[in-house]
Amino acid sequence: MTPYVADPVYLNGQFLPLAAAGISPLDRGFLYGDGVYELVPVYSRKAFRLDEHLTRLQATLDGIKLANPLDLAGWQAVIEKLIAGAPWDDQSIYLQVTRGADNKRDHAFPPASVTPTAFAFAAPLVTTAPEVRAKGVAAITVSDQRWARCDLKVISLLANILARQQAVEAGCAEAILIRDGFMKEGAASNIFVVKNGVLLAPPKTQLMLPGITYDLVLELATCYGQPLKVAEISENELRSADEVWMTSSTKEILAITTLDGKPVGNGKPGPLGEQMFQWYQDFKNTVMRKG
Ligand code: PDD
């Protein structure tokens, strides 16, 4: 059996077996969810869009006023070593940094002597089965209960977790978050809409995570001359869409074909979504799998 998390993992400057990796119960990640994370897909042992992921990690660290424990070259070296040590060609690399462990519990930042906790591991890349992709998946809409800095990729994910669990209990793959009548994103994905041949994308604001896949979808649409409109998407526009897609580093581009129990468009994955999936695969194969 392949383990879910590969050995070794990285913790605070060391590579060690997962079973030997220990963190203080006073770690602020544990006490407060005071930390940040990234998830980087790896294809054929090459990290995909690594610079973009590490740039977003830095932006999130800046956003929560936490110094990066490693520089760019430091993270690259950690990631290369994790990839090399794992048994799979396609992987996902998880990175997490928390504000570390003080010797007491206090909401305010700990003294500078408390160093951040940096943790990273490799796991197999879990992809969507072709038969699921061919049919598309179901989603529900829920009210967005998150805080006002959803652009930061922080580990405090309780509102996302509750939304996602609601979806699971409804037999659905994703929960689409609605705030003030507008669609923001999914509990763990960005959402795109197609109407009359135009690809609609919500703008990057503080109420949406700037997805690495989202950026690539916009780049590919622009590169291939796909009509595109970046603007807030109302709940009504979502419900009357011809196509709805979810995007993320692990889901890539996945059609949502049922929304709140009703078919999206004709209830089948649409032509633009299939085209974008193909463009995405071509990009991956050109950039990643070559040489
Ligand atoms: N989630 N929006 C949210 C709220 C997310 O959690 C994610 C990704 C995305 C898509 O971002 P990207 O394209 O960079 O993966 C959008 C990751 C996969 C996770 O939480 O595990």
Describe the structure.
This protein folds into two domains: 116 residues, D-amino Acid Aminotransferase, Chain A, domain 1 (2-Layer Sandwich), CATH 3.30.470; 161 residues, D-amino Acid Aminotransferase, Chain A, domain 2, CATH 3.20.10.10. Helix content is 30%, strand content 28%. A hairpin with a 2-residue loop joins strand 10 and strand 11. Strands 7, 8, 9, 10, 11, 12, 13, 14, 15 and 16 form a ten-stranded mixed β-sheet that branches. It has a six-stranded antiparallel β-sheet with strand order 2-1-6-5-3-4. It has 291 residues and is of the alpha+beta class. The longest helix is centred in the last third of the chain and has 19 residues.
Question: Can I get a quick summary?
Answer:
With 291 residues, the chain is of the alpha+beta class.
Individual helix count: 8
CATH architecture call of the largest domain: Alpha-Beta Barrel
Overall spatial form: globular
**Spans of at least 5 consecutive residues with low confidence:** none
The average pLDDT is: 97
Count structural domains. Answer: 2
Report the CATH topology name of the largest domain. D-amino Acid Aminotransferase, Chain A, domain 2
Provide the helix percentage. Answer: 25-40%
Molecules bound to protein: N-(5'-phosphopyridoxyl)-D-alanine
Our measurement of the CA-to-CA distance between the termini, rounded to an integer number of angstroms, reads 30 Å
Strand content: 25-35%
CATH-assigned homologous superfamily of the largest domain: D-amino Acid Aminotransferase, subunit A, domain 2
Spell the H/E element sequence. EEHEEHHEEHEHEEEEHEEHEEEH
Rg calc = 20 Å
Q: What would you call the structural class?
A: alpha+beta
Q: Under the CATH scheme, which class of the largest domain?
A: Alpha Beta
